[in-house]
Write a structure and sequence with these properties.
The structure is a homodimer. Chain A is α+β, with helices and mostly antiparallel strands. The first copy, chain A, has three domains: 1-40; 50-159 and 314-348, Alpha-Beta Plaits (2-Layer Sandwich); 160-309, Alpha-Beta Plaits. Helix content of chain A is 28%, strand content 21%. The first copy, chain A, contains nine helices and ten strands. In chain A, strands 1, 2, 3, 4, 5, 6, 7, 8, 9 and 10 form a ten-stranded mixed beta sheet that branches. In chain A, α4 crosses α6, α7 packs antiparallel against α8 (257-269) and α7 runs parallel beside α9 (276-284). The longest helix of chain A has 23 residues, at 13-35.
Chain lengths: 348, 348
């Protein structure tokens, strides 16, 4: 009842109604379970209460982490972030349901990774970045936090992503960019790279630019047709001698797709592949070319350290907690989605 | 005699004369020493022969080093570089006489540090960077190597230096720039910073912008009057959000001068100091203002991690081994300086 009254006092009318209804349902549910002799464990209660959805924007230096995804015995970004959230929110890991927009690989960096979690507390989003950053390691930083629509999904609601791939094209690698950029000694032909990059823009089957169905990789049933909006090769000479950046923006990415794209572009820049190969690779798509194990060769997949998840794009409505993003689908009493929306491919 | 003949065969006439004379003097000297019963140790011979002067341009990430200068029990850049040179040249540390243009402090980086050493071998300067980089740790890289005039001095021949100080001016520090940039949360007023920077350009007594004569610091007799040619505040928004760089170029620098300058400029940018304070500090110079321990306060010396020795300027003649840079001073038979030239202040 305390929760019910507090909700009514503090919140604007519309939200108050939602909250009071929620509290009502919880209290009634609890009463019902008590009457029928069912146990009311803390997990049941938290699952009922954990209905406020939050969106974090984080940046990290991935050098010392084995990627985003939680692993039993390796340091990962998810593990470090969950530990910080548990400390600050005084809660348990399982309750938060932390998920990220892009499950970055080992050694991949991020400047605009988006992470979602659920929580039963009405957090002061302006203070949360400071609280979290004070307990996070120095190579992970929370930039912003927003409350979101209750049916927000960090992966399915994403409209697209932008990745940056950094290269140092000079005789000797710049030690101040060694952690964040790949080194290419041979002078790169930017005109040829830009020609090849232009061929990639648009909607194509990118099977040849990914690890899908490679030997050892598990075959996937996902759609390999993606739309790239932009593939730019940018010179950043004023930042460091020989600094280059490949910027790739698209609606979705296959596993290691940006690293394949960067590898192909560097092979083109070095003169090892003609730009026309890119067009052929896009035409072949998932129909394996004869021989060569179903793959075009002649390039190396670019190393992880040059890759950075720069930005994930969302509809601005996601940051409005009173919005329902998917009105045609079934929601529970908190606005959470009960049906699943078609999965997008967020494999990079 | 073998050396004498090889010199005559291999080298162009002018150099050959110089070399044959040198060999002559060495052989005569050795004969003399033998006749008078003086020992001819390897050190004496190497000191005689080590008359080819080389100039290395190196870059390093100073994060994991206790600065440039050799220390008994700490990792320093000089130690790592000397170890690499000894491995590649198969010689002893003491023979090389390694010296740097700027003795960078602990944690300070470099993109254009210049290092001098002597060697009795005629090295293939085009292959040396690869040989050295193959044994150097990843955070130190040799960019180029040149043979220099025999009387070249890495410190005294320098015409000036350029330092870069990197800042991230945003709510939260960018973890991908954490090793190389200072973080300033409060928005910086670039116009005020540029006004203060403009006041520093020119010839002034920079005592107030250094650690000279501070309590604990040993008092120095050096000239505190320096000429700054350029103090620029550059915005690098396309590199990273909130990225700024303070570029300082001058004929010489006092100890920690660039970090003092950067600290003052950031205090000005944050509104903690009015730009006019800079003018007053330059006017006061080495005359201590009343109170406050002879120092202006109101700013913090900027941390080492943001500082990078960007470039050291030399007369182009230094890379010509047949030039004598200081014809008015006394030289030995190898062209090496016997008198010392007035020391410049390379204290940063």
């Amino acid at each position: 009842m305390g929760f019910y009254l507090r909700s009514l006092q503090r919140l604007p009318s519309l939200q108050a109604t939602m909250y009071s209804n929620a509290a009502n349902v919880v209290m009634t549910g609890a009463l019902g379970r008590m009457l029928y002799g069912e146990p009311i464990g803390p997990r049941w209660l938290l699952a009922r209460l954990g209905h406020l959805s939050y969106r974090l924007i984080i940046a990290y230096d991935g050098t010392d982490y084995c990627g985003w995804q939680l692993q039993p015995s390796a340091p990962t970004v998810q593990r470090a972030l969950e530990a910080a959230l548990c400390t600050v929110l005084r809660t348990e890991r399982g309750v938060l349901g932390v998920r990220a927009a892009g499950r970055t690989d080992s050694g991949v960096h991020a400047r605009g990774q988006v992470v979602q979690f659920s929580c039963n507390k009405d957090l002061d989003v302006s203070k949360m970045p400071y609280k979290l950053n004070s307990v996070l390691p120095h190579d992970i930083r929370v930039l912003r936090i927003h409350r979101t629509a209750p049916d927000f999904s960090v992966t399915c609601s994403a409209l697209g992503k932008c990745y940056h791939y950094s290269v140092t094209n000079s005789e000797v690698h710049d030690p101040l960019r060694n952690r964040y950029a790949m080194h290419v000694r041979k002078p790169l032909d930017l005109a040829a790279m830009r020609e090849a990059a232009a061929a990639m823009v648009g909607t194509h089957d990118f099977t040849q630019f990914s690890n899908i169905g490679e030997e050892g990789g598990r075959p996937r049933k996902r759609n390999p047709v993606k739309t790239l909006r932009r593939v730019d090769v940018v010179k950043l000479e004023e930042l460091a001698p020989g600094a280059l950046r490949i910027e790739v923006e698209g609606n979705g990415f296959l596993y290691k797709m940006v690293r394949h794209i960067s590898g192909v572009l560097m092979a083109v820049g070095e003169g090892r592949l003609p730009p026309a190969t890119v067009t052929r690779m896009l035409e072949v798509g998932s129909n394996a070319p004869p021989g060569c194990n179903g793959r075009y060769r002649g390039y190396n997949v670019a190393p992880a350290k040059g890759l950075c998840l720069h930005e994930v794009f969302y509809d601005p409505r996601v940051d409005d907690p009173s919005t329902i993003l998917y009105p045609d689908l079934l929601h529970d009493e908190y606005g959470r989605l009960l049906e699943s929306i078609p999965a997008s491919d967020d494999d990079e």
